[in-house]
Amino acid sequence: MKKMKNLCFFIWLLCGTSCQNYLDVVPDNVATIDHAFSDRVQARKYLFTCYSFLPGFASLYQNPAFLGGDEFWVNGEQFRRRFSSVQSIAQGVQNANEPYMNYYEGSNGASSNLYRGIRVCNTFIERIDEVEDIEAYEKAVWKAEAKFLKAYYHFFLMRMYGPVPLADQNIPVSASPDQVKIFRGNFDECVTFVSGLLDEAAEDLPKVIMNQNEEMGRITKPIALAVKAKLWTMAASPLFNGNPDYAAFINKNGEKFFGAYEHKKWEKAVEACREAIRVAEEAGHILYEFQDQAGSFTEFTKRKLSLRGRVTESWNPEIIWGDSKGNGATNDFQRFSQARLVNGIYDAIQQALSPTLRIARQFYTKHGVPMEEDKTWVGKNVYGLRVAAPEEAHVVKPGEEVPEFHFNREPRFYADLAFDRSVWFGQGVLDENTPYYVFARANEVSGKKDIYAYSITGYFPKKLVYYKNAFNGTNYSLVQYAFPVIRLADLYLLYAEALNEYEGAPTPEVYEFVDKVRARAGLKGVVESWQKYTMDPSKPTTQEGMREIIHRERLIELCFEGQRFWDLRRWKLAEEYLNAPIQGWNIEEKSKEGYYQVLDLYEQSFSPKEYLWPFKTFTLTVNTNLVQNPGW
């Protein structure tokens, strides 16, 4: 049975009706595996085919983590035209007949069949040693890249489906019908398998890419170890580690898919995070800070540019893994995120990617603590309007009235979000005294003028827009960037989380790694901030309190980067966060009094069964040994 679990899933699932189509790197009439491994040039093309199955991390269409949760919402017309597959998950209408974003089979919004990708990786690993005109070192690196991709495709599926069939070898075409009807592995078996592959890959991968002009985006040792850190942190988290909801979830052979809680998994997560950070820092990765060579910006503007640049400064030293496909995808990303700041630019700017009021609410006050915990905010009418003073010109246009909610917030709030009457620095204007301002009320330049290109919530994800993009007449000049899949701040916060869980209480090292991220955001340390400004100064001293703080820190620091979607699931907190209305401002109104009314845009709901993707019902009829996930 163990051997059967290591066979690749049945042939039709891997190849579908176009087995030869995946081999798009060989000439017509020579579509053979032998040709693909005839020399170094052809083998390199085949390696890039292994890469081609990576989902578009920066794609609003291919990555369910952007529009499948509660960070963004789009208006009805954009939903119908573009985003129905992915935002249907956010609307709670996932189904088993035709699952949305079905990466198990590559359908209904998914960019690829990941088992087909695994099959290609297996073939490469099996055949690359036959190629004679490749040096041994290069051959080892290429094989390691394929092993990583094979591991990552399994990991990607595990986040969606939980336990999955393990595909360590390709099944031969002579296999019997019974041989292709394989079982899912239990979750621990899947974790061990993927972790082992990542270790094998890391042994031969380079720490840094030497030929940066041609090879940025290829896999390195820090990437492999960072994914291993994410794997073990996921495995140790409440959704998969002793979840009582899955206690009776069993395979067709009677084996339990999930075991009892194991505290040792947090130790594994600590070790994996520590090693990933060590190697990443040895490779030169540091938290990004904007360098003002001319000395022309105020400290606050430099802070905002550091925070915006941590994502949009392409291949900056904080980025451990950047999406090389993202160089094209960020074009769409930025057009949907950019607020329209000048007239006559309608066709170039879609401005439809709308952060929800829930996300705006999660950012800290200027004291580095949650608004609801800040004792200086007690009794404030946070949605009440007040006039922006001249000394607040760096965040809101002086003399304009906006809610108290938009004043005295932390720097990340102003770096990551834009809102009505707020400052938008850059986009061709680098004079801090005459910046662009967002005017987002009905019929204004950034507001709703039609049924298509507008923010339905009144917020804009400025974090995703490079500040050097510029308006040129009726055109919008874009500087594309490689989207960060994993950056160092992510690892720092993962490590702090794992250490807090493993030790049972926050240690000095837990504070250290959280505070590193906070310092770059211009905030004081956790202990100092809670002691000075909150009604519960002892909160950071307990495991439970620090857990909540670390969760909030991740949700803020990594917002709009595709992390929240998976974090809420592994923490088993999606039921808490996603059973509440999606809210925004009343963008149909022209007056400030009418505009600043909170509206419920959608009554979002989340069922426990949605923690895991359903397998397609038809797939279960073909492979009778495959078990459906609970609730579907």
List keywords for this structure.
41% helix, globular, disordered N terminus, two-stranded antiparallel sheet, 14 strands, 632 residues, mainly alpha
Tell me about this structure:
This protein is mainly alpha-helical and 632 residues long. The chain has 25 helices and 14 strands. The protein has a two-stranded antiparallel sheet. Strands 2-12 form a two-stranded antiparallel ribbon. 41% of the residues lie in helices and 7% in strands. The two termini are 26 Å apart. Residues 1-30 have low confidence and may be disordered.
Summarize the structure.
With 632 residues, the chain is mainly alpha-helical. The chain has 25 helices and 14 strands. α8 (136-161) runs parallel beside α12 (221-236) and α12 runs antiparallel to α13 (264-282).
- Please count the helical segments: 25
Number of strands: 14
Low-confidence stretches: 1-30
The fraction of residues assigned to DSSP E strands is 5-15%
The class by helix and strand makeup works out as: mainly alpha
Work out the helicity level. Answer: 40-55%
Q: What strand line-up does the widest sheet have? A: 1-3
What general outline do the C-alpha atoms trace?
Answer: globular
Largest sheet: 2 strands, antiparallel
Radius of gyration: 25 Å
First CA to last CA: what distance? 26 Å
* Overall residue-averaged pLDDT value: 92
